[in-house]
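hey so u asked for the seq, here:
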Amino acid sequence: MSETTPPLLDTPAIEALIPHRFPFLLVDRVMEIERLQRIRAVKAVTYNEPWFLGHFPGHPVMPGVLVVEALAQTGAILVCHAMSPEERAGKVTYFMGIDSARFRKPVTPGSMLELRCEVTKAKGPIFKMRGEAWVEGQLVAEADFMAMLADKG
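ran it, structure tokens below
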């Protein structure tokens, strides 16, 4: 991934698709997207992330559950990107389940976390996805998860 490659979607465009905001928006840019098939996004992991204050002092590590949340947000972007603004209005994507989560290496400040998701099954408003997180060409986490597109409220 070239640092000079412009993102397909930047933070304002991502915020137009999903409701997450700082400090819980865990996707900075979308680099590639294939409609309802796959997506590649990135998150720059910096020292000023709020969780590093306590996880762990003197040895900062991004919590694994937040790596999985970043993958789930990436999956939500994939689903919502395929919809028109009118179709998205009043909708939210809920994380429904997770299977086969594995954490291979710790993610530390200074890392560029690459988030890859692909839809493995879709039926109506329910999507099953496979997600992988990579840092410098090494797989650091992976999971299968399920999400549902639902009405807000």
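The mean pLDDT is 94. Residues 11-151 form a domain with the Thiol Ester Dehydrase; Chain A fold (CATH 3.10.129.10).
lmk if thats what u needed
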